[in-house]
Design brief:
heterotrimer; A mainly alpha; B alpha/beta; C mainly alpha; B: alpha/beta; six-stranded mixed sheet; about 25% strand; C: mainly alpha; MetI-like fold; two-stranded antiparallel ribbon; 2 strands; globular
Chain lengths: ~280, ~250, ~280
């Protein structure tokens, strides 16, 4: 009987090892396929020109419209989410610190919000747009994406602030003078890398999401010059151009995929570096 | 030491990463007596005990040299199945850790692991061991209930019954009463006094009073080393080393 | 600060109410029962039966879970019980990057790799001639997308089980594998279920990647090799025609509302179970 058990254990150990390898392999495969297909399409023209002759049919030009559009959109949404989200996280961790139960309820709430699919935000945004008479535009996109990433921003910053002990925060904010100023500066220095990680994380989600911008930003060949104009985004650039019958247009889609993937990888690496810094500088009380 | 040693530990050195946790341990645990490993918190007594049934295998950062000889077999270097060896020793931890199953299944777990028993035989054994720890009357009507519903004192007795059910020769107890109320503690101590007729008991504690109550032999440890060892009378009434004297006076814990 | 907090708190309610209000137009005309259980989808004739979409969603989601679940459980056990500690440290960035890859990129990869794989190798192996755009493709792509979420939670769950429990089992003579089978997995069980629940809700709401590989044919799929049309894809594909056909927008908003509610319920139940489990440890 024990022989059988040994075989069973060996079998599952191999299976478990394979499972882990499979996951690592999947990541490599994904990144490799995207780069393999897309890098040939990357050229200086591709990155610096907008599509000529219509994004779906035009053979000339590149994806600058999507790159700039995405940057405008994501940076705008991230800034807005930060302005709204940071106070919320601060409020939770400072003023509400005595009401543990309330904080946990809010955290639970935010976790629930985090799970809402972006298409729901998109659909809702679309209805609001019609209601308020806003056309598909950069502004509409920024608003919807902001709503979408607020839970992420708040929770991520909250996780950072959570680690600072109560007394320090209270002391520094309520006194606001010499001794606590040093404490304030010290703990702030501690938190900044973590907050930067939170911002990067939100930015990554904002720039990569397609469903929330599908209804709200429209799509265009041009780089938007005002908030009320529609704009192209990298995810939609992939989505709309991938199915074009014209290979040059398809290549634009693959190039967008490469650009987007590279941006995400850079964000991942940066946020790892910052969160390592955060952990290193943490004073353990 | 007149009695036949059940466990002989020779030149044992244990490292966790770079830290030298157990330093040149040389000691013997006599058969069918209560041996108390005494010492302040952090002196390595729990680690020493865990190395006796090779629970230290669970932690890859731990490196061990030396010999631990049980029944003429160096268990650190044995070719035998380690699970069989572990069954020679029952473990009682500081806090009771009932397995996530019914009371009945907790006790029969060790039995079912390696051998196929008839249902009637298992039932008899479960009853026997629960009676041995004075738990039978309290739980006989709810054997199928999850063990987590018992009180802490009852859980610890359950863990004792569970450990006895695999018919060990040695009982390793790591501060088994530290989480219990005085009455449950007393029950456990009384059980140990009865059990030592049939089992070799190694009892780790840092509570001096408890050690004085139950010990036949004492191994006093400090900072990973064995400072002094001998019969309870020798150690408590006539300690030789200064550290032992200081500890017994209550100068540090 | 307080204003911001209030804004954030009322957000989900506003979302829900907004969607609901938009759907009432349709709900007044047709009962919710009819909408959910009819498979007739002819918007031009005013027929809005969501059944085929709901079933497609269920197929893709459940299959994705069937693929991702065992892989994640096996991997979590491997990483927390058997592998050397540096392996877990390497896997953390791998998991984080997988979690951060945008939906569209998964979609592109699905079209590049998975769809041809199915149409050229797996399909013919089963004797089917198919385009590759199918429930199976959707499920495979989706499963990889939800793996990081499920795996992270499972790793946490196994890490919080006290070592002493494993020690107790080992000292009774059980082997490491027996300990895992009979003790650890049992102890982790509520956490495992929650992790799967969260994975399910993530899968259910995933839009773009699935849409790109699943075929988008509005019929109840009869097998994994057939195309499907999950609920989020429905909303995404038709927002253009929404306004030109009467009550179409109402229908799509209702679909969004259903999605919202289902995801919320699964999230709520899963997270509550995890909290309860942590309390009981």
């Amino acid at each position: 009987m024990s022989k059988f058990k040994l075989i069973e254990e060996k079998f599952f150990r191999v299976l478990m090892f394979l499972a882990t390898c499979l996951i690592a392999f999947a990541l490599c495969l994904i990144i490799f396929s995207i780069l393999y297909k897309g890098i040939p399409s990357i050229s200086w023209e591709m990155l610096t020109q907008t599509p000529k002759g219509g994004f779906y049919f035009g053979k000339e030009g590149g994806i600058l419209n999507a790159i700039i559009g995405s940057l405008y959109l994501s940076i705008g949404a991230t800034i807005l989410a930060f302005i709204i989200g940071l106070p919320v996280a601060l409020y939770m961790n400072i003023f509400l610190i005595k009401h543990k139960k309330l904080i946990n309820i809010i955290r639970f709430f935010l976790d629930l919000l985090w799970g809402v699919p972006s298409i729901v935000y998109g659909a809702f945004g679309f209805t609001m747009m019609i209601f308020f008479g806003i056309k598909t535009s950069l502004l509409a996109g920024i608003i919807v994406v902001t709503l979408f990433i607020i839970p992420i921003m708040v929770r991520a910053i909250d996780e950072v602030l959570k680690t600072v002990p109560v007394g320090l925060l209270e002391a520094s904010l309520s006194l606001g003078s010499t001794k606590s100023e040093t404490a304030y500066r010290v703990f702030f220095k501690q938190c900044i890398p973590g907050i930067i990680t939170a911002v990067l994380l939100s930015f990554g989600r904002a720039i990569g999401d397609a469903a929330s911008v599908l209804f709200t930003t429209g799509y265009t060949d041009h780089i938007p010059t005002s908030l009320s104009q529609p704009t192209a985004t990298l995810p939609l650039s992939i989505f709309f151009q991938l199915t074009s019958p014209i290979p040059e247009v398809q290549n634009r889609a693959y190039a967008s995929a490469v650009v987007l993937t590279v941006i995400i990888l850079i964000i991942s690496i940066l946020s790892r570096i910052f969160s390592k810094k955060f952990q290193k500088n943490q004073i353990n009380f | 030491m007149n009695n036949k040693p059940k466990i002989k530990i020779q030149d044992l050195n244990l490292y966790i990463g770079k830290h030298h946790i157990l330093k040149n341990i040389n000691t013997q645990i006599p058969e069918k007596k209560v041996t108390v490993i005494l010492g302040p918190s952090g002196c390595g007594k729990t680690t020493l005990m865990k190395s006796m049934n090779r629970l230290t295998d669970l932690y890859p950062e731990i490196k061990i040299n030396g010999k631990i000889i049980i029944d003429n077999e160096n268990i650190l270097n044995t070719k035998q199945n380690i699970s069989k060896l572990r069954q020679k020793m029952g473990l009682l931890s500081q806090r009771p850790y009932p397995l996530p199953m019914s009371i009945y299944n907790n006790v029969s777990y060790g039995l079912k692991i390696n051998k196929k028993w008839k249902k009637k035989e298992i039932e008899k054994k479960v009853e026997h061991y629960l009676k041995q720890v004075a738990l039978w009357d309290e739980v006989k009507d709810r054997l199928k209930e999850p063990a987590s519903r018992l009180s802490i004192g009852q859980q610890q007795r359950l863990c004792l019954a569970r450990g006895l059910a695999v018919d060990p020769e040695i009982i390793l107890a790591d501060e088994p009463t530290s989480a219990l109320d005085p009455i449950s503690s007393q029950v456990i101590e009384e059980k140990f006094a009865e059990l030592k007729k049939d089992y070799t008991i190694v009892h780790v504690t840092h509570i001096l009073r408890q050690a004085k109550r139950i010990a036949d032999y004492v191994v006093f440890m400090y900072m990973g080393e064995v400072i002094e060892q001998g019969t309870a009378t020798e150690i408590f009434e006539n300690p030789q080393k200064n550290k032992t004297k200081s500890y017994l006076k209550g100068l540090f814990y | 600060m307080l204003i911001c907090l209030i804004l954030v708190i009322i957000l989900p309610f506003v979302l829900g109410i907004g969607l609901y209000l938009k759907s009432t137009l349709l709900l007044e005309k047709v009962s919710i029962f009819n909408l959910l259980f009819s498979s007739e989808w002819k918007p031009l004739s005013g027929k809005f039966g969501f059944l085929s979409f709901i079933i497609s969603s269920l197929w893709v989601t459940i299959f994705a879970l069937l693929i991702a679940g065992p892989i994640c459980l096996l991997s979590a056990i491997h990483l927390t019980q058997y592998a050397k500690s540096y392996v877990l440290r390497i896997m953390h960035p791998v998991i984080d990057i997988l979690a951060g890859i945008p939906s569209v990129i998964y979609g592109v990869w699905g079209i590049l790799v998975i769809v041809p794989l199915i149409s050229k190798y797996i399909g013919p192996f089963f004797g089917k001639e198919i385009s590759g755009y199918s429930i199976l493709s959707g499920a495979i792509v989706l499963s990889i997308m939800i793996i990081p979420f499920i795996l992270n939670i499972l790793i946490e769950v196994f890490k919080t089980i006290p070592d002493e429990l494993a020690e107790a089992s080992l000292s009774l003579g059980a082997s490491k594998w027996q300990t895992i089978k009979f003790v650890l997995i049992k102890k982790a069980f509520p956490g495992i279920v929650s992790a799967l629940g969260l994975g399910l809700s993530r899968a259910f709401g995933e839009t773009i990647a699935v849409l790109m590989v699943v075929g988008n044919v509005a019929k109840i799929p009869k097998g994994v090799f057939q195309p499907g049309y999950p609920l989020p894809a429905l909303i995404a594909n038709n927002y253009g025609e929404m306004l030109s056909i009467p009550m179409y927008d109402s229908a799509l908003m209702l679909a969004a509302l259903v999605l919202f509610v289902v995801v919320l319920i699964f999230n709520f139940a899963s997270r509550l179970t995890i909290i309860r489990m942590e309390r009981n440890l």
